Amino acid sequence: MKNLFMAKMTSFSQTTNEDVCETIIALEKSALEKWNQGDPSGYLDLSADEVVYFDPFTEKRLDGLEALKKYYEAIKGQVHVSKYEMLNPKVQAVNEMAVLTFNLFSYEGDKVNKWNCTEVYLLEKSGQWKIIQTHWSFIRPDLK
Amino acid sequence: MKNLFMAKMTSFSQTTNEDVCETIIALEKSALEKWNQGDPSGYLDLSADEVVYFDPFTEKRLDGLEALKKYYEAIKGQVHVSKYEMLNPKVQAVNEMAVLTFNLFSYEGDKVNKWNCTEVYLLEKSGQWKIIQTHWSFIRPDLK
After folding, report:
1. Chain B contact for A137 (CB, 8 A cutoff)
2. Are the beta carbons of A142 and B142 separated by less than 8 Å?
3. B31: exposed, middle or buried (C-beta count within 10 Å: 0-12, 13-18, 19+)?
């Protein structure tokens, strides 16, 4: 599993630091690596009750964790990614909110899917970062 | 011009309020309405120096306002949207950062383009909200 750590941190507050960047990227990779084995539980555990969600197969924005759970239920066991590259992950953060953006290459055998991704994380009062917004889209879907 | 205001606000802080929601949506609509006439200056003026950007035509994430200016230069005058519907805009905010998500139907004559959109706004020290992250993608690109 290729594991790139070319992260760039943009901090808008003196109290945010490199640790936030590393924490957010580690949370994302942990959920993604489960996802790649057909297991959506990592993303579901990481998502807040109020999460909103877009991907190339949704007809409109999905609102709330219950809607996301129902949606992911049908995908369980369908994904088999053998290798991934998370390209240029970047975290832009203030104290309680952080935006993670990256491109992702996901390999399934000879096939590669190329993605744009935006995750917005909120620092909950418990001290846990949770995803409140996910947006997945294909890079250049016209060329797919 | 259809102008829907079915906004829902999710506030994670006692100091954020309905005003933030209305402010953010008004900023977005103002930039979008210029865009619809082929003028990208609204979005460029609203974007921070450190903005990151995805759309269905970019090969990878664009980083920084200069890159976005260069990219938009080629599109100037190409867009002629006669009507739009911003569907279910939602703002999730803490004091200094806000996420706006919505679906957008853009009509050019008989043709309609259907979009997912995520904008992340940062409250700058000047008191001005600026976009630090934009993600546009097509709804169900496989059906286009």
Report:
1. yes
2. no
3. buried
Nearest CA in chain A to B49: A10
What's this model's pTM, rounded to 2 decimal places? 0.90
pLDDT in tens, chain B (144 residues): 333 344 455 555 444 467 999 999 999 999 999 999 999 999 999 999 999 999 999 999 999 999 999 999 998 999 999 999 999 999 999 999 999 999 999 999 889 999 999 999 999 999 999 999 999 999 999 998
Q: A79 by DSSP, 3-state: which?
A: coil
Residue B108 is encoded by which pair of tokens? 């050019």
Cα gap A101→A97, rounded to integer Å: 13
Beta bridge mates, A103: A87, A116
Interface predicted TM-score (ipTM): 0.90
B-contacting residues in A 66-125 (Cβ below 8 Å): 87-88, 90, 92, 94-97, 99, 101-103, 116, 118, 120, 122
Is residue B37 helix, strand or coil? Answer: coil
Under a CB-based contact definition with an 8 Å cutoff, are residues A139 and A114 in contact?
yes
Q: Which residues of chain B lie closer than 8 angstroms to A60, CB-CB?
A: 87-88, 103, 139
Cβ(A27)–Cβ(A108) under 8 Å?
A: no
* Contact state of A139 with B58 under an 8 Å Cβ cutoff: yes
Taking contacts as CB-CB distances below 8 angstroms, the residues of chain B near A50 are 10, 92
